[in-house]
What we know:
six-stranded mixed β-sheet; alpha+beta
Amino acid sequence: xxxxxxxxxxxxxxxxxxxxGHQWLIGSPFFPSLTIVSTVTCxxxxxxxxxxxxxxxxxxxxxxxxxHIIGALIIKNSDVEKNASxxxxxxxxxxxxxxxxxxxxxxVPVMIAVVADLETGDNKFFVSRSENSTxxxxxxxxxxxxxxxxxxxxxxxxxxxxxxxxxxxxxxVNNPSDAQKIYLHAIEAVIDKFKDPQIVYLVEALGQASAExxxxxxxxxxxxxxxxxxxxxxxxxEGAEDLDRKDLSCAHFCLKSKSGPTIFSAESADxxxxxxLHNRSEKSPISTxxxxxxxxxxxxxxxxxVDFKLEVLCYxxxxxPLMDAISMLVFPGLVDQLNSMTKAVMPYLLTQHPQxxxxxxxxxxxxxxxxxxxxxxxxxxxxxxxxxxxxxxxxLGLPFDRPLMRIANALDLSNTKDGSRSNSLRKGxxxxxxxxxxxxxxxxxxxxxxQGSYEYYHYLQDGxxxxxxxxxxxxxxxxxxxxxxxxxxxxDVPSHRYEKVTAYRVLIQNAFFRxxxxxxxxxxxxxxxxxxxxxxxGAIELSFVLDKLxxxxxxxxxxxxxxxxxxxQVSCKIINVRSGAELPEKCRELALHFETQGTPIMIGxxxxxxxxxxxxxxxxxxxxxxxxLDPHYTGNxxxxxxxxxxxxxxxxxxxxxxxxxxxxxxxxxxxLPQRPNMV
Length: 679
């Protein structure tokens, strides 16, 4: 039996995010106190020490309520116990900065310290069990959980509260300096309204198209205790669902059973929706008529209206009482987010207000959602927004060569028209995506796969007959879809499409192919007669088209007399082999591409083109298998039919019957798009 008070449990897949400085350790009051859920890097410093005020301002926004600071990691190589004490002290200072009215005085007496030694690669774990004690204990028993997402999401759910606010107030024209004071007073009045006895919190299940959908529950401000905190919470035991609404837990709004395999993630979590209403029509024993009061201004005044759109996301144990979830999570979350926006608007109060919107992200390696407030007055490609995203990537230990925190990546937690939840990031297309998932390799080697999502394009789609010559065009569509779904570009994947004109449907003939052909003519690669033809194109032409359509490639071609050399390009690589028999020799290089770049590869040879999605390479035997997505498929978009028919599957260079998949009498060019270095 594991003693949770004497052992540290590590849930985060990656504990060390940087090679210097401090990291903050994140836990939850719903887990044992020595459970590390995630870690974030300290990015604000005063000389060599953390700037606790700036750090607390950032973390109030980033961390959903239901998670808090439980310690610090420090990267130093000498005097381990002294460094551990420094880490504990830094974490306690940050926690004190985070505490306040919105945090309701939440006390975290136990603090974890981790001292990382980069020379040896060792992490030493310590615990301080009292804020008043200077002693720290060494922890020898550290558990790295086998299934962290299950640990987090089997126990908990998300609570979402969206609240648009329009805040009007008057300030004296002759004394504009008073505007800030009046503005802050109006904000305080709004916060007081959140806990007004007449306030109503409407609680309902979000996006569950199910017969077991529970009825909404109304909780009134007069019944809630806004002065308590999570250290005083009392969880509701199982089987308490028939109690009075005041004793209902969050589990009341969570699905008891789900169709299909259980997926543990923020995207698949149960979500409880909370709406904030103000009851202005409560019955009164005394009949009264409406009253309008007029307060004349003592001097010239000007009306100022500030718009806010709050959207708070909280994590709660399913056994947490609903009333506690509102008063201990939703209320402080609204207060913190409103205060953050208030602070951002203050310098621009009398000019153009920043258009602030909160967005929530589910990020690789981070078990819980992250909330970010973006200013929409700036475009996503403007340097101000790019710098904001770079700092977020630095704090969260994310790579700097992929756009993980653009608005298009944000979780969509809204309801669809049929009441089902729409939290997918893949919108607007009915095409099959990620066809290869679930197809097992029998190569027996190390498997390297495409990273991210793509759409499957093949012959005869969009009602257009390109059978026999359009395979490279279709592979190009799949590659462009990858860049779109990974949010490197916002352009739509070019395709044949129908447009409705009055009562008729007009086929836009050859739209996609003509666009590609026109691009090649414009750059001088083809003659004008090429437009409208059915000529086959290959990897070199595709590289030019990607440059033209996406604008992300800048080519520098270097040729060599070696028949098996590759053509090195700044942001794209083309590998050339003299014969299909030589392709297995490139398996190690192709595997490295999938591990470092992760983009789909186009293979062109003779008059055939394929999309390569992965490599199975056996280092010991030299054996290799290719995961091929075949654009020559002409049937309906049925996943089972495509997989069972071998249109997406693992192919060996020579199969068991001695048949060559790649032709030995044809040369092949492979287009390897490089992942753009951008956030």
